[in-house]
Amino acid sequence: MKRALLLFLALVATGAPGIEAQGNCSVPHGSPGSVQSQGVGGLFPGAGWVQVSVFSLDTREEFTHTGRKEPYFNEGDLGLRSLLVTGAVGLIRGLEVWGQLSAHSVVFDESTGARESTGMGDARIWLRAGPELLGVAEDALPIWLGLRAGVKIPASEFSVNSKIIPLNEGQRDIDLAVEIGRTFADGRVVVQGWGGRRWRAENREAARRPGDEWFGYLSTTAAVGPVSLRVAAQSLSGDGFKSNGFAIPSGDRNMFEVFPSVVIPLGRGAMEVGARIPVVGKNLPAGNALTIGYSLGWGGSPEPDVEALFPER
Which residues, in sequence order, are CB contacts of 268 under 8 Å at separation 6+? Predict the structure, then answer.
């Protein structure tokens, strides 16, 4: 069971591909719980976007509990493929609802044999509030300021079988984050960031309570003709977990990652292709990952949308 839980932690950590149109959280919690945005500002009522993204990781290395990058035990090889469908819609001025569904296929192959699982991961839903909710015009502020609150719910059954790699963590999480952003150069440059806290409930089936986490994110997106370049970084710092009521200090996990990507207009939407590169970490996979996503929006937005970021030349 311990090995299966460790493998699932790898799945959790590699979740959140950074390839979203206006937003994406992780799978199951976006590694550092990111929700990546392509524009700054809120959605008009009825306006929205949807994004389909895929995430691919193959690695033979992990960041151990000491923070060292080392090969997996028993010549282990982790392979993960994830599909995420993320969307958002404006409810009233200054208030939006976001949601995400995820599905995963994970294989861990080692000298004693291979284990694999395929199915649904976690489901997530958030409410995102901006200054318009309090009657403050967005263009009256030097920066956009918002508050995002969400919950993660397991979308499939959690297995305690040691021969099965679980595809969700089997418990609920609650996120709270403060978001800031600003556009420059007539909307062709976007700087955005957020930070927050994740409170994690107990998985009673496994008698395990994951440690609460702090997370942060910062990105800069610049349009160069019809193409947009994005460089992002995110961090995660989590407490050690408890097993059967006993604290495991060496089970704490952290990560700092960078995400270079390119966004290209395609049809009525945009495609983003990027890489996820871990720099330092602890108790998490160490391999680079490939991310690809396609985004499509509708309705208006108080701030630059896809067309504003990628104007015709």
Answer: 296
For residues 15 and 27, give the distance between their C-alpha atoms in angstroms, rounded to a whole number. Answer: 4
* CA distances (Å), origin 60, targets 69, 72, 73, 191, 243: 10, 6, 9, 34, 27
Kindly state the DSSP code that residue 45 receives in the 8-state scheme: B
Question: Structure pTM?
Answer: 0.81
The DSSP result for 156-195, as a single string, is SPPP--TTS--SS-SS-EEEEEEEEEEEEGGGTEEEEEEE
How confident is the model at residue 221, as a pLDDT?
A: 92
Q: Which two tokens stand for residue 279?
A: 């720099």
**Residue among 276, 245, 257, 265 nearest 312 (CA):** 265
The listed CATH number (2.40.128.130, 3.40.228.10, 2.60.40.10, 2.40.50.840) that belongs to domain 2-304: 2.40.128.130
Where exactly are the structural domains of the chain? Answer: 2-304
> ∠ at Cα 136 (131, 138), nearest 5°?
65
The CA distance from 57 to 77, in Å, is 10
- Written as six digits, the tokens of 240 are 């050690």
One-letter identity of residue 253? R
pLDDT in tens, 235-244: 999 988 888 7
Cα angle for residues 60, 62, 67 (degrees, 5° grid): 155
